[in-house]
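Predict the 3D structure for this chain.
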Amino acid sequence: MAKFLNIEVGDSFVKVCLTEKKKNIVILKKAFMVETPIGTAADGMISDPGMLGSALTPKLHEHGMSGVKNVIFTLVSGKVATREVMLPPVKENRIKQVIEANTSDYFPVDISRYLVSYGMLKTVSDGREAGSHLMALAAPLQLLDGYIKLAEKMNLEIQGIDYGGNSQFQVLKTLGGANKVTMCIAVTGNHTCITIAKGDRLILQRMLPWGGDDLVDAYLSAKGEDNGDHEKALDECSIPLVKFLAKGILEEQEINRAYNRIVGGISRSMDFFNSSRWSAPLDNIILAGTCANLAGLREAVSGALGGAEVFPLEEFASAALGTVMQGDRAMISHYITAYGSTFAPVDLIPDKYKATKERKKNSEHGIIGAVVIFATSVIASAILSFSAIYEESRLRKELDEVMQEVNSTRYVEAEHSRYVTYRNAERGFAALDEATRNNNSGLADFFEELEEKMPSDILLLSAVCTNEGVIMNIRVPALETAAMVINQFHTFESVEHLEISSLTQGLDEAGFFFYSFTVNCLYEKPIPPEKPAERVSSAATDESEVD
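Done. Predicted structure below.
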């Protein structure tokens, strides 16, 4: 059973968990939270790993976690860009190459300063939806460098760097059940992550850059303690609304005002969810995170969702709690993003760290190997000293014959590699020739309707054209535009079936919000292939703006 430290660095608090993983079971053994030293971190960016490491190391000793050296970091930061991507069928070992080849289409930034990775959301092997549904991520290298230095300072070995949205999704798809549409709202001090999933399918996810600190800061300010104990204030605010109002420090309207930004973000997310015409409504709504128990938050979230019942995670009835997910329920809710990183973290470890780790491993193996070789040599020398000269000569002669035979067959390996290269090239050219013969008869009609019906501020980032339809990655500047674009697609005469992915929010280089999503349009009368052929992945991308 593998043991891990799970560390999440926030603006106000650093959360640390000790987890154990056995197959698909993750056990939360211990957890603690400590205030983030002033000036060491902001929005997930660690500016002073030395000071932060010095503050955390004695806490690990204090809580009996110092013996665990494997760590998984969780990034909760607005600096991490995300994008849902749909790829045509492609071998799993080639997905990363395809993502990297199209990175500039997914993330219009200077990609040399980012590490791009992905998380697998869903894979379909047959039918119209055949392909891979992924969550592509781009994290600044400068952001990741802070966590590498923190691990070095604390003498820890990084086993993973995960994104908070992925961590929450891994927990949610375990909790919600295969046929239930479940929303999880995880509220921390300075972030709120909204995730909607059905089984292992991610429908929508948004990361809001504000959280429970809006109420905690208002509470401290009303008490005249702007620089007071933040952790103590969080505890004092995490009580039922009636008891909190009885203190007389904040009025109910002041509490509601503190939740305005969270409630607004939830409402906008639901507007997009409803405008996308998902066939099934929400079955479950779960509230989790460090600030889930703040006074009045549960009531405010319920109001934003039309009075729907909202369950704290520790009260939610799920077969997964106590089986796949083991540990104190309240603790799992409190540390959901750190705890969830143990399930299936995305690969956000920089290549340079992997190379350093591999060199260190090889060096350790080299020392052990040298000792073994030396000991073996001493024993062999002692044995040979008692052997006859004739026996030694005979063995040397046999060794020379074997080595000559080995050397004489080395050319076979080169010839085989050359043959494999030629064979793969021939198959690729044959597949390319077959692809050029496909009849995209519906493509012209589709793009005529696209030019006629789409608004001028839509940005078509990429398009994958197949014999059955078109898969497009689209960006718009506002949610209202997204809803209008989706409604227009439903009026296309050339489209028989329409599939829309979840919306992803991001910031462009000018600092403006944008919203992106993927549309899969299937022609009215798909043309069947003339003959079965071996699948060869192909993708055509084109960045253009529809006027």
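Confidence is low (pLDDT under 50) at residues 530-547.
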